[in-house]
Design goal:
The chain is mostly helical. 73% of the residues lie in helices and 3% in strands.
Length: 137
């Protein structure tokens, strides 16, 4: 049973990492907020928006992480079929969490002026990542 669990965790991690590695996220919910502020030279209004968006994202992510925890605690894991179903459900939750990250990053990116956005695109391109497009208002 331990081997099956480890295998399922490996599969879920691999699937999540492959999706993350393509999109150029800022991940405003992480601890690198100061780097974002300095790199893009955010003004006071943008910093206030960043703080607000970050709080909302963390709250939403906490709910999603609780869903993952509940899934892992309650889903049957006795057979290969059950583990496969668990992996698919876990992948769907991880995808949802990643989409939430992108949505909140996009909200901040949409507040960037032209020069800030150009810097973001340049950094993404140099890292071989796909930039998140700005929302049209």
């Amino acid at each position: 049973m331990n081997f099956k669990f480890l295998l399922s965790v490996f599969i879920m991690t691999f699937l999540s990492v492959s999706a993350i590695s393509q999109t150029c996220i800022l991940d405003i919910g992480s601890k690198n907020v100061e780097n974002i502020t300095k790199t893009f030279q955010l003004n006071k209004e943008q910093i206030h928006s960043l703080d607000s968006l970050r709080t909302q994202l963390i709250s939403e992510r906490d709910l999603q992480e609780n869903e993952v925890k509940k899934l892992l605690e309650t889903h049957p894991q006795s057979t290969p079929d059950e583990l496969l179903i668990l992996a698919k459900k876990h992948k769907a939750l991880e995808d949802s969490m990643f989409e939430t990250t992108i949505i909140y990053d996009q909200k901040l990116i949409s507040l960037f002026n032209a020069k800030q956005y150009q810097r973001y695109v340049l950094l993404c391109t140099s890292a071989n990542r796909i930039p998140i497009s700005r929302q049209e208002e």
